[in-house]
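Hey, weird one. I pasted the 3-oxoacyl-[acyl-carrier-protein] reductase sequence into the form twice and got a warning about non-standard characters only the second time. First submission, copied straight from the form history:
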Amino acid sequence: MASKRVEQIAAHLNYPRGMLAGQTAIITGSGQGIGAEAARLFANEGAKVVVSDIDGAKAQSVADQINQSGGQAIAVPGDMLDDKYLDTLVKKAAEFGNGKLHIIVNNAGYTWDGVIHKTTDKQWDTILALHNTQPFKLVRVAAPYFRVKDGEPRNVVNISSTSGLHGNAGQANYALAKAGVTGLTKTIAKEWGPQFGVRANTVAFGHIATRLTAAKEEGGYVTLPDGEKVALGIPQKQKGAKEAGAEAFKDIPLGRPGTATEAAGAILSIVSPLMSYVSGQTLSVTGGRNM
């Protein structure tokens, strides 16, 4: 049996059509950053990619780039906090995949920081809904496409953070939400693995260079449905030049933040056939921080 598995893995190393050929993937929050890079990498490996993002223009731009490069993608923009959008997203993804859906990457999200005694109910409820409730609902809507016995691979990847693994001052809402997705991941793996072969894993990122880790003074923000703007980034003005530079990464063995492409590569690797016996796990992508 072991030798047969080795032969299968060896065969997988020669993918003329890509490691994800024939698979259809939904990647939420893929209009920019890690999600956009994951969409491109998935498409390069033969997947049909559904680009999901609240920003329609950015989602369409990513899909257009993929199609112009010879891949296959569609943009299905919408608000993850809208339950009706989740129904539409799964429906259009299944149509794009000729009635099948193989991969969901729950990547959409942002931070809305505040110390515990100043965090509002709106901050709390929004972040938990975005990172916990809606990913669960998306998986639930997609259940008919995952609870099948056709012998094809199925994967759910929930994106977490070191804030969820270790906590982080000023991020009680985000830390709880990101810790919560690991429990969701393990439950999916235990419920859908035995009969249907579904793999579910969590990828927890450390310091990846995105708008969430850029200097807050750069003015990045997310606009909520009611028009309120949520500032993104990490405040730098109280830090000295050295601390804001290379010194800021001295606790990372690799000495630098990760790139969005490196982060996306970790997502690709965990859904690939090279990790076909990995399920219910949390992969920390941190450059060695917190080991």
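That's the output from the first submission. The warning seems to come from a hidden character in my clipboard, not from the data itself. The beta strands are 24-28, 48-52, 72-75, 103-106, 154-161, 198-205, 221-223, 229-231, 282-285.
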